[in-house]
Automatic annotation (TrEMBL):
It comes from Xenopus laevis (African clawed frog). Gene3D superfamilies: Immunoglobulins. Coiled coil: none annotated. Keywords: Immunoglobulin domain, Membrane, Transmembrane, Transmembrane helix. SMART domains: IG (SM00409), IGc1 (SM00407). Residues 975-995 are annotated as: Disordered. This is Uncharacterized protein LOC108713707. InterPro entries: Ig-like_dom (IPR007110), Ig-like_dom_sf (IPR036179), Ig-like_fold (IPR013783), Ig/MHC_CS (IPR003006), Ig_C1-set (IPR003597), Ig_sub (IPR003599), Ig_V-set (IPR013106), Immune_Resp_Modulators (IPR050380).
Amino acid sequence: MVFPGVQERPPNLIWILLLYFSLSGTDALGIKMGDSLVKALRDHDTFIPCTITGYSELDPTQLSVTWTLTNKAASNQLVYKFLSQTHQPIRPGSYIPTSDLIRGNAGLHLPLVQFTDEGEYTCTVVYTPDKAERQSDLQVSVQPTGNVAPPDVVVETGSDKTVMCEVNRFYPKDITIQWVKYLSDSSFVPLNKGTCTTDPIGSKDGTFNISSHLTVTPRLDEDGDKYACVISHRSLEKEQKLNFTLTVKEQDDKISGVIGAIVVTVVVAFVVALAVSGYVTFIKKQPPRLSPITGAEHLVHLNRATLSCQISGYRPEPIKIILCLKRKGAELVAIYSWHSEPNADQFSKREEQSVAIEFDETQHLVSNGDSHLPPAQRALKVEMVPLIKTNKQRISNCQCTIHITPNLEEDDGAELSVWVNHRGLSVPSSVICPLKIEGVRPKLFTIVFPLRIIHGESLTLTCPINGFKPKPLSVIWIRLDLAGQETEIVSWEDGKSNIKYSRYSHCLKENMHEDYSSSFLSLLTMKPTVNEDHRVKYICRTFHYATNTEAEERMEMCVLAVPELDQIKVFPEIPCVGEEMKFSCKIHSFHPKKLEVSWYKGNEVLSTENSTTVTNENGLLSFTSRITYTPCVRDIGKKFRCEVSHQSLQNPKCVSWELKHLIRNPIVSPIRCNPEILECNQLATLSCLIKDFYPKDLAVQWYKGPEVVSADNYTEVLQEDPTSGLFCKTTEMSFIPSINDHATEFDLEIIAGTQVIKRTICIELKGLPQIKDIICNNLSPNYGEPLTLSCEVSECNARDITVEWRENNNPIKREMRTETQINRDSVSFLLKLTPTAEHYGKLFTCLIKHKDLQQPIKKSISLRLPDVPPTLSEITVSPKRIEANREAIFHIAISGFSATGLQVKWLKSFTPLTANIITTAPQIGRDGLYSCTSTLRYNLTDSDHSKFIRCEVTANREIKGKQFQLYLKGDEPKGKQTLNATEGNKVPMQKGLSM
């Protein structure tokens, strides 16, 4: 009987079919567990199925499998875990073959299960990013063994007889025992009266024992009735029946005894007569004849083989058979013996012979006969089953069946012989059979590796080597490069790996099957790179010593590198509506070259422009993908996506950028005045149109001269263009001008984001002087070149006007001249001057006073004079012949600069000097620019020889400098004609030093 769940390995064909139908055409991860209940027997190996469905291909690097157990002892206790291509058996002996996992079989093997293994098992599978789990119950049982005592039930009429049914070593304790009486071969009735069953009693090993009693008081007509003790238990596929036959006898009396004695006497006399006749008839002895031993033509290492030898035509029946073995270089030894008439001692050491009567012949069947030889002489696993048939003439034939399990290493070339001792033989007769034992060569399956081999990620190549015996085998991994050169990288033999290159690691997993054949999994682990491994072949080569055969499997590496995408770069950072913006994304570290890049705005495909692909020192590729796009307001909130499809990716990889902000600088019209000609005390309106801007958050502020106009005094109207999404705003300010408002400037300040736009209008009232802005006759004035500033006034009488020119709100200086030029319709007020550095950054103002105006009208201009940096002379020293421990005076001239606030620093090499420094105040020179001098007085020491005296001048954050190298008296360098520190020894310092 095969108990469910008791098997070492799942049937390969069933698993292949399950995987085919469960994986094809599916996308979602799933698990199939088979039956929800798995039954197993204690101390047997069992298997709990778990089939992964939903994926046509499985990558072990993305797969993890966890088995947990929940029972009375604990909840969710970890049993087995497969993670990061590493097996972690928590329950001793548990395993999941890697080759099964690759095919989607995550079933758990549990050898020699015990009661503690019983419970609910959960198989949890994570195949990134999916997860699934299912449960299955494991039921562990022990089958009961029962017997009925006494085996032969004999009862005299009128008396009782008790029969006991003992049931031992079963688990769990729930069991049913029922006594029945057969009415026929197929029908029976249960017996409830006269029965008694004890409670189950526990044993030390966790099993239970129980007994039941049946008491019968039969009648004479019940002689020969059949009874049975019927045992029902969950470990049994069908009920176990222990049958016995009831024999009923009448009670003995003296008359029957006398009759019996007479009958016995007659029978004995008859038997004696027959014996005398038989002795005369059958007294002649016949020696046995031996046939050749057959069945040894194809012997396989550790495979059980059945040999046969016919011993025929002998009389009398008693015979002794001896099996002998002679190995190479060894003596002939007896390994098994059997006698048809065992003595009492032998009888007690082996199972009782069973005798069956078949027609008119007697058949003796002997199983598992014992050999009484030392174990050392019985290395060959052997079992002999003689089958004897004897006819009416007492001629016997013995069919001798021999079961052997040969070992190639010990028994190949040995001689197995059958020796027979019989009364009809003066010497034993024998027949010899030579043993030629073969091994089973290994079968290599295709090297298993992930669907995608990724650059720099751990990779395991698995070579299954199956079904060979005996075990000695060598495994070699070889790297075959593009030039065809083979390099041995790993070798394995006798349980040891010899790894010749540190970038590789190797382990070998062994498994022994029921037929003593071995299966290996050779696992080579590395981190492949594009430069070293792409298109390189790896070979797993084996040599089997017993069969002298070599086999190999090879695979070609296709190393992929997953593309990396940098964040999308956008220029400008804040794009403008209607203006082109540029997107770029660097795609790097990928291999091979074939790669597809797509840009999307939402789901809309955009045209792409890619740069030239570049290869780095690691063989990885990179390039930059770009697009140009002109955004509109409707694009706000849209995501721009760069998507990459590559052989190394199961799904496209992408990076996105969301357009959150857009701006559009406003177009601002000049300020308009309504009416165009203003009059005192008449309502006037100033307006400005601000259009095509985004976002709508735009602020406006009106100013009247320097004063802020209250928001209550002007209006704003905002409108949105439904087509473009841009905004438009109109602002108006109404006021009633007075005479004091004449020539007043009204300013409008528009703030759009970080941009500030200003518009200005100067209102002029009817009947009052019209004043134009000051103009300069030279748009690019220079220092020392004369120029004229002019302010024109019209619509008035020149006698009613007075003018005052000012410089930075101060009266003008003597060297400046003012003139009045009367034209036909206007009068111009002139200021003539020759600008110098003193005028740099100064503001010139023309104050126009009219008899009808309380306050003068101001018009101002700032001269656009250039910023001229200083010019430094060479540093001179006095005295010319400098000596240690004496004072030296260093002098420099600084000229031709326009800005004041000059900073002068003296240093010795890089050490600032602060004492004894005099820098004169800047003075205007003939060129109209400033000039000054700076002097340093410094006491020299011996340690100052060959050092530098430096002068640094800072003007408007620009630094210029000069330096002078010190050669003290007596230490001048060779080759110099003079020892004096003359001007020829001066070394100019680099100009434009950076701070």
